[in-house]
């Protein structure tokens, strides 16, 4: 497995600090998350095959550049993975995006597949699998297994991720050694509730505003229905 962690620059750590802050308002959380998501996605795309591509410039000169040499699609793991679609649309506006719905039982922590909607020709494409959190690895493994069942070669899967636990990485590495994972941070550990430490809380809830930060002592407060 090819695992790439983004360079831990001061700038990236500043973005993480603002995003992780329990008191950060939603707009601050989303703005910083989007910056990190963009870097993760660009890194995934940079790992794909490229070919030489020559163009004429407005002054009549020739520029020899490159372009992605393969057909690409994306698949987001609903719902947190959908947070990554906004930045992806800026990079590849016409890219097909499939959906996989997987939910984890709150008691057993086991993942269950509920729904898939994927491009018909996904087996011929390189796939960016978008899921911000890699904790236990259960949801990721189920999503990867579904892609492989649809004919996608393991080495054509690029897992775009924001936070990864050492346990989750090791589990995915053991099952899918040919896949590429790009993450912005490897966390310290999982706690007994399978939350990553230091973590970011529930990424999907914070991104889409179904909870907000700023409660007493940094506690998260659910918005009224």
From TrEMBL:
* Pathway(s) this gene product operates in, as recorded in its UniProt entry: Pyrimidine metabolism; UMP biosynthesis via salvage pathway; UMP from uracil: step 1/1
Name the cofactor(s): Mg(2+)
Q: Which major enzyme category is it?
A: transferase
The protein's matches in Gene3D superfamilies, at most eight in alphabetical order, are given as: 3.40.50.2020
InterPro entries on file: PRTase-like, PRTase_dom
Record carries keyword GTP-binding: yes
Protein keywords: Allosteric enzyme, Glycosyltransferase, GTP-binding, Nucleotide-binding, Transferase
Reactions catalysed, as given in the entry: UMP + diphosphate = 5-phospho-alpha-D-ribose 1-diphosphate + uracil
Entry EC number(s): 2.4.2.9
Which is one Pfam family of this protein?
UPRTase
Question: What GO MF annotations does this protein's record show?
Answer: GTP binding; uracil phosphoribosyltransferase activity
Domain Phosphoribosyltransferase intervals: 7-210
Give the family per the record. Belongs to the UPRTase family.
Protein purpose:
Catalyzes the conversion of uracil and 5-phospho-alpha-D-ribose 1-diphosphate (PRPP) to UMP and diphosphate.
Question: How is this protein named in the record?
Answer: Uracil phosphoribosyltransferase
């Amino acid at each position: 497995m090819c695992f790439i962690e983004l360079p831990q620059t001061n700038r990236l750590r500043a973005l993480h600090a603002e995003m992780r802050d329990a008191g950060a308002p939603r707009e601050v959380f989303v703005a910083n998350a989007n910056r990190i998501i963009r870097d993760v996605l660009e890194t995934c795309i940079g790992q794909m095959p490229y070919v030489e591509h020559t163009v004429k410039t407005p002054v009549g000169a020739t520029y020899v550049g490159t372009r992605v040499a393969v057909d690409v699609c994306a698949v987001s793991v609903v719902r947190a993975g959908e947070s990554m679609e906004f930045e992806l649309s800026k990079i590849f506006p016409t890219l097909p995006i499939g959906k996989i719905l997987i939910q984890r039982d709150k008691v057993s922590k086991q993942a269950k597949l509920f729904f898939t909607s994927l491009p018909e020709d996904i087996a011929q494409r390189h796939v960016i699998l978008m899921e911000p959190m890699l904790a236990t690895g259960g949801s990721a493994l189920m999503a990867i297994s579904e892609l492989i069942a649809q004919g996608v070669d393991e080495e054509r899967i690029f897992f775009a991720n924001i936070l990864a636990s050492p346990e989750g990485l090791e589990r995915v590495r053991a099952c899918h050694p040919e896949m590429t994972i790009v993450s912005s941070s490897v966390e310290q550990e999982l706690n007994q509730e399978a939350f990553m430490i230091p973590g970011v809380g529930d990424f999907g809830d914070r991104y889409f505003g179904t909870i907000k930060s700023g409660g007493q002592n940094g506690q998260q407060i659910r918005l009224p229905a």
